[in-house]
Specification:
This protein is α+β, with helices and mostly antiparallel strands. It has one domain. Helices cover 36% and strands 13% of the residues. The relative contact order is 0.20.
Amino acid sequence: MVSKKMLHIAYEVGKENRAGRSAAQFVRERMDTLGLGSELTSIPWGSKKPIPLPPSKLKERSDVPNM
C-alpha cells in the first residue's frame, strides 16, 4: 500500500520535480529510505501492467537466524 501511495505522489509531483528520475526510481528511493519493500519487484497499478521497480539497495532480511 505504501508503494502505491509513493507512486501516486511521484505522478502528482511530476517528472520535472523528481530530478530527472522515473516514477519507479522515485518510489524505490523512498521505499529504501523507509526501510520497506526490499522484496518488491513491481507495483500493481490499476488495469495497466504492473510498474517494475529497480532493485533495492537494502539487504533483504530473513526471518531465519543464521546458524
